[in-house]
Fold this protein.
Amino acid sequence: MSKLTLKELSKQEELLSGGHRLCAGCGASIIVRQILLAAEDPVVVTSATGCLEVATTIFPYTAWKVPFFHSAFENSAATASGVEAMYQSLKKQGKIKEKIKFIAFGGDGGTYDIGFQSLSGALERGHDFTYICYDNGAYMNTGIQRSSSTPIGAATTTSPAGKVVPGKMQHRKNLTKIVEAHNIPYLAQASPSKPMDLMKKVRKALATEGPCFLNIVSPCNRGWRSALDGAIRESQLAVDTCFWPLYEVEEGKVKITFKPKEKKPIEEWLKVQGRFKHLFKPENGWIIEKMQKRIDHDWEKLLARHEADQPVKE
Amino acid sequence: MSGLKNWKELTPGAVIEEAGNAAKYETGGWRTYRPVLDEKKCIHCLNCWISCPDTAIIVRDEKMTGFDYDHCKGCGVCADVCPKKVQAISMEQEGK
Amino acid sequence: MGQRVAMTGNIAMANAMRQINPDVCAAYPITPSTEIMQQFSSFVADGLVKTVLVPAESEHSAMSACIGAAAAGGRVMTATSSQGLALMWEMLFIAAGNRLPIVLAMANRALSAPINIHGDTSDAMGARDSGWIQIFSENGQEAYDNLIQAVRIAEHLDIRLPVMVGMDGFIISHSIESMELLDDEKVRDFVGEYTPSRPLLDIQHPRTYGPLDLQDYYIEHKRQEYEAMKNAKSVILEVAKDFSNRFGREYGLFEAYHLDDAEVAIVVLNSAAGTVKTVIEELRADGVKAGLLKPRVFRPFPAEEIAAALSGVKAVCVMDRADGVNAVGGPLFPEFRSALYDATPRPMIINKVFGLGGRDLGLHHVREVFAELGKIAETGKIETLAEYITVRN
């Protein structure tokens, strides 16, 4: 295993080329670059339909320097199942000698929603692959429609902040917790603002036999209505407010991998995003309160699990 | 549409055989602001490199040496992640 | 030669799969094809095949996994019916568009609603424009023979298109018939070693599959697919010829039964052809020049050959065990009618939708159809262009 330092990694070949057509300042390509840099064995990638796929593979161009397969929106995990099954078959037959790892990408639409069943099926079947959700909290590719990952209160084009309804009225689904219920060997949440933490988790996932899952917060300045240069700032705020805790679950044991020195109020994250602008009107303050309450509750539970799962010091 | 291949010349199934050929497609024209490096200030922490969405930070021998302006879209994430005490990258308006 | 056995269509299909010995199978159970994968799973469990099984959580995922596996670079098969094929629908086009030689064993069944588990070809007709080669079978023997040939057809380098092989649900899938099972080794020799084309797992040559293909290129890629489908006709015949040389059973694009001198003829897919043949024998004994055209290959659609075979017949009835609900007849009808536009002399042509949801087609129904065709041939007049039969009026 090569040393995981930026200096060491900078000597490696970049496996996602420039010239892709993701928006300026996109979080997804930052995440993909970090993942491909962290991978040590050759990887084969599948992807759900979405920003990442359409913008990186506009025929006759591809930004991918690893084998890449896209077929539809809801089936990144199912497709990876097939690719991995063929690898196992050919390896058993002695037709393939190399060690190959498999990564399936999907956005929150392709993972939380339309691809949820295919993800669950592939995790249950135990394929040796890592599923990575880049979660930007809405269907950004089709023009910012709400998903089950969209935070409460967020204005999207299908949950607009109107005169009567102030944005999305439901809490987001906690997919990481649902994935945990599959009892897979390794899963984690990560953020591109903590690249070393993210890449360590990628290495762990790829080194683990069986299905692994990473949920990664992925800023989208178009959908979040936020600054062009804000991807790293905003994803770090998501971590510092504990909206997006960085933790892992290894063989059922929870470990928080980054604890903010001081947990910031959720307003800090909300106020840098235009999609939450309306929440700062006095009549909508209850939504921020409701969101804060949920975050506090989830964070307390996570802390308690972390404490309970830490090895006893001698 | 001259110069484009006809159907007999294409790989069946729309498979792209040339890995990473998107590099031939230049997105530098998207920029309204360009990042500029002050080499004297740079401490080569490589924060900019690991945070660039466009693989547009050029690193040689562990050192940040500049930008790939053919592909840099001018988002400014590099300048944002440059340590506050260092501020080696500034964003300047294109065409000035 | 092979071994004489008594088995159901499903078990025959499963045995063809065992002998073909694919690298990966991904499937999801659905009546009436369930038994194919059930039987095949026991072959896997007993180590009789090298196949890695992906027991997917839906047909959509099963076809997605087949597509991933085929692109990865190996031989891939699956089986389904009805709603399962309908759920695969999105992925069928992708399998064909990516030019992946997946082979699908299909027990044809009616589509919901209302829900019905029995034999008709509504499922296959829903996939007729998906870019898959479609082959149909009258009985278990044909289903078995066709599935073996399908592998060679799909994998031919001029084609590289997926193939589905149908037989009637329950009527054939669950009926035991006496048939010949070929020797394992002979089937293995016939299908040959798989040569992957642009495998995804070739990490020395990283390829991108499934790009966004816009106005500049999409139509060129579809034009290629069209060419492959056109090529399929001659390859299907080539493969059939080799099959008959080795194993003695002959196959074409369709079966022409007493068609040479026929004055009246029926066109019908799958098992109903057997019923029609029985009636033709009766009618021939009475001096009626009746015939049958049983399409084997529906995609590619052999329009010229059909026109040639049916030209000279005075009246033809296309019988559809499916309805496109376009209010002018079942799905085979417009295609056959269109093919006959160029036939000289051009037959009169009518349509009957029959047997939906497994409703029996009796000998008397077929006799009535032939009687009607006789009247049309005599008078040169069609009273009813298209209608339902085997239905209570």
